[in-house]
Amino acid sequence: MFQTYEQALTWIHARLRLGIKPGLARMEWMMERLNHPERRIKTIHIGGTNGKGSTLTFLRCILEEAGCKVGTFTSPFFEQFNERISVNGKAISDEEMLELTNIIKPLADELESTELGGPTEFEVITAMSLYYFAKKNPVDIVLYEVGLGGRFDSTNILHPLLSIITSIGMDHTNILGDTYEKIATEKAGIIKSGTPILTAVKQPEALNVIETKAKELKAALYQLGKEFSVSNHKSLTRGEEFSFRSIFQSLQEIQISMLGQHQVENASLAIMAAQILKQYFAFLIEEDDIRKGLHRAYWPGRMELISDQPFIMMDGAHNEEGIGALVQELKARYSNKQIQILFTALADKDLNKMIHLLDGVTDKITFTEFDFPRASQAQSLYDLSSSENKHIAQNWQQFLTKTIPEMKENELLVITGSLYFLSSLKPFLLKLLN
Fold first, then answer.
1. Fold for domain 304-433?
2. Which terminus, N or C, of the chain has the lesser number of Cβ atoms within 10 Å?
3. What class, spelled out in words, does domain 5-296 have in CATH?
4. pTM above 0.70?
């Protein structure tokens, strides 16, 4: 038994050595031993390449406004590990994390000696969350974010009220496949028999996979652009405004505080999910709950304006689609600014395409690196860039300390790339600005 939170966290993180082990056999084994906590909770399952966390946050805030007690399971964490398991946006305590670890560790030890092998870090934390929401702190509903893919993800042990696939993009291609069809097949693995499925996926070949799977499982499919749609979109200084129409209800002039066309699409998924919960599952969600929830929703590191003077933005654009969305917004919103970018990413991403997109929008780009197992080296990123004004700053702390005081009024500093990088950088940045 662990005596301290630090011991528990060290044990959890040590399980990263097991890497990714696709399949649900270990989860099924643990659920059996825990008397199936996954069957005792109402859940919504959210998968997709980008937009999972934002969609989850929009929906959480709507449900909170409607008076619900909402559990969430998200990854990766941004400021502290515990936030992966949260209630109404508040991370569980160190004491609760310690207690959960002591419940799951004996099972992990026992599994280790079987032919299934020991559970991974993600399987352990998923099992902890299911036990927590079923036995320790019951809630009205839990929103679960898929870790990787869907079909073999540990969260796919769930039988949710409804499922959401936000988007399909070329990420984790070494695991999920190198075509939209292959990746969509993995994502569509979360579709359950007779369970409504919502999606904002655009690629015809990916949509075809989702449509076929939904039809096969008799799951009602709600597509952005068909059963629900957005219109009259306009960008605001600190957010977006749009109108929403669905087969249930239309809403005019909705405002969100997150930036970007992609966030409008994520918000529309949350609205549609809320309407389905009201229509078919007796959740008392009113129009005012939707408006207030969407407007206050905040998700760190997603086109987040850190400071107006100097003008600094952070965005966890960690794949080609994410970088594409960032570049689109920079062109649309800040074409009058001198844009400077600080970038680093994990080495297993499609770095060539990502850097090519950034080169096209920046006046100056600086590549850095950070302490993480799969992190890229600044030099290798620099070598991929064709920018005429590219630089290397191996020490990002020194770079920020020197650059920020020298920024002019018409300059915008965009810090982007790996979310792991942003989460380690943000406390330093805030301290520097204050």
1. Protein-Tyrosine Phosphatase; Chain A (3.90.190)
2. C
3. alpha beta
4. yes
